[in-house]
Amino acid sequence: MQRFIPGDAAAMPGSDDTERGGFDPEALFELKARVDAADVALKASFPALDAARRRYARTRSAADKETLDAAQEETRALFDEWKGLLTAMRAMLGITDDEIAEIEAARVGGSEQIPRAALTADLIAPTADLWAQIGNAVDTIEALLPNGWLDEEPVDGARLDDLFGPNGVLSITKGLRPESEAPGIHRFRQAIYNARDYRDGHTAYDHFAGATQASTVVQLASQLKNLGAVGGDVDGRLSRLWAGASAGVDATILELFTAAACAAKGRKVSFLPETAEKSPDLACEDPFPLVIECKRQAPLSEYEVNEEALMRDLFFRLRQLARTRGVAGVFELRLTVEAKDLSLEDVAAAAFRQRLAAHPERPLAYGWGTAAFRELPRRGILPEETRAYSPTMLQTVFGWNTDLPEWDGLCCSIANARGGTVLDVQSPVGLLWSNAADSAMRKRTWAPVNLFLGATSQIPPGATGIVYVAYVEGARAEAADMRVAAYQERLREWEHAGDIRVPISALCRLYPRPLEEGEPDLIESSIRLVSSEYGDPALFDDFPTNVFTQSGGD
Fold first, then answer.
1. Which of 30, 66, 297, 386 would be a feasible disulfide site paired with 448, CB 3.0-4.6 Å?
2. Residue 347 — left, alpha, or beta (φ > 0 → left; ψ -120 to 50 → alpha)?
3. CA 118 to chain centre
């Protein structure tokens, strides 16, 4: 596959026939009617072709091969007729090939990769007022749940209470809090509790999870109408959110949102039952028979989880040293080796010793990277009262930007978070870290190619399929852009089984981040991919690119 890069939006050329030269309007209308009729005939041939491909993929018999060849020849002839008529109409209008390319680019819409640094809250306007919708959304989703289901696990498992104790520590890696992404309670129960807490303004509202979950609850409620137009066992798919395994909730959300977004586009889609054989998520009847498969990457990879655990251990060592000596400040480490290869004792000693340097804020080099130290007051006054560990506090005290992190991770704590809100911070200690080792960068910038390969394996032999791959991105700009580049490069080299077709695919990148006091914000920036052999970017007229931020309609 290769990335389809559209041009700038442009007006339809050729609309002014005084510039293009005269033509017979009646002849143009007649030719247009022939183009439309040829288009109808071409699309009418697709079901027979699809059936022939699937049958031959199963039987491999000579008779079915002959039927397939005949169906392909008929479709090819109809396509050639349609294309010839369309070319004649374009010639009559005097439209050049370059102008056609511009028209197609404008019609299909934007899919060029947007750099991570351009995906910030000040550059991307919100498409929904979550605060205005959260109340009705929570009520709507709770009405779907079985009686008593929410009460089976305590709400504390969805809150930040553990951060507020004297030994609490906030740890963030790739912009995510591990405890928020792997909660001790059911994932969907966490989402409902989290949305409730945001609605109610609860002090212990988990704004790290809420950036995704409050947005998800609002989107799910708004898409129920579109899901009503989806065929198959929609109720069964919805009930997986609470009756299924916690680990499957995020994947089910993607399937539901994709189905709803396709229905909003006017597609006739149906959920397919799971079978022991290859089983995609959705079947679509138009514009021709095909299947749709969705895959969603876990928010944090095993490597990221293990790396974060080591850096958290290092922070505990530094915090203990700081408490013993009455030190407050932020330790800044830029590593050039993988965390697993560090001597945590040696690194902690070197980082803590940095405070004694003539200019501790200037990095000193070691065999494993550099260390710097930024001293903070033992009691620092904030500009105004804020929630403990809010984005505003993290930025002001520790230099962590939740919108566009500069670092790979942050570990930090303050001594006075017990009340949940703070006017000042006492005994702040923080560790900011990033890793520039080549091996670490490769592992941290994993691309979800395996998800794409797994999705294509679900497409039955002989079928045409569309693939949606989604993942959460919270890494610093360099790592985020490297991930997309790696994905695109791998797909250029990818080959699939000859008996399936994947004409288009969407890579849905999600950027959740809490802002200011913890307001949830979710940006979706997807990339459209088109097969260089048989794909047609015009298919994106019929299928959605973004699914998490698709309007749910009235």
1. 297
2. alpha
3. 16
Local confidence pLDDT in tens for the 554 residues of the chain: 322 222 222 222 333 443 444 567 777 777 778 877 877 777 777 777 767 766 766 777 888 777 877 877 887 787 778 778 777 777 776 776 665 555 555 544 444 568 889 888 888 877 678 889 999 999 999 999 999 999 999 999 999 999 998 889 999 999 999 999 999 999 999 999 999 999 999 999 999 999 999 999 999 999 999 999 999 999 999 999 999 999 999 999 999 999 999 999 999 999 999 876 678 999 999 888 999 999 999 999 999 999 999 999 999 999 999 999 999 999 999 999 999 999 999 999 999 999 999 999 999 999 999 999 999 999 999 999 999 999 999 999 999 999 999 999 999 999 999 989 999 999 999 999 999 999 999 988 888 888 888 888 888 888 889 999 999 999 999 999 999 988 888 877 666 556 788 889 999 999 999 999 999 999 999 999 888 777 778 788 899 999 998 765 54
What 8-state DSSP symbol labels residue 548?
A: S
State which amino acid sits at residue 306.
N
Residue 310 backbone phi and psi in degrees, to 5: -65, -40
Query: Contact 455/251 with Cβ under 8 angstroms?
Result: no
Rounded CA-CA distance 156/24 in Å is 74
Dig out the tokens for 366 from the structure: 């070691």
**CB 328 within 8 Å of CB 412:** no
Residues 6 or more apart in contact with residue 104 via CB below 8 angstroms: 6, 537, 538
Q: Using DSSP bridges, classify how beta strands 465-472 and 290-296 pair: parallel, antiparallel or unpaired.
A: parallel
Pairwise CA distance, residues 388 & 152, whole Å: 28
Residues 107, 8 contacting (CB under 8 angstroms)? no
Place of tokens 């190619």: 449
Contacts of 30 (CB under 8 A, 6+ apart): none
Do residues 468 and 292 make contact, with C-beta atoms less than 8 angstroms apart? Answer: yes
Q: Are 373 and 331 in contact (CB under 8 A)?
A: yes
How is residue 229 written in tokens? 């137009």
* 153 CB-contact burial (10 Å; exposed 0-12 / middle 13-18 / buried 19+): middle
- Which residues are bridge partners to 282 per DSSP? 271, 292
Short-list 515, 518, 513, 514, CA closest to 420: 518
β-strands 269-271, 421-426: how paired?
Answer: unpaired
Round to whole Å and give the CA distance between 443 and 437: 10
Name the burial class of residue 518, with classes exposed (0-12), middle (13-18) and buried (19+) by CB atoms within 10 angstroms of its CB.
buried
Compute the distance between CA of residue 407 and CA of residue 46 in angstroms, rounded to an integer.
51
483: closest CA among 504, 511, 502, 512?
511
502 and 197 in contact (C-beta within 8 Å)?
Answer: no
Exposure on the CB side of residue 171, measured as CA atoms within 13 A: 20
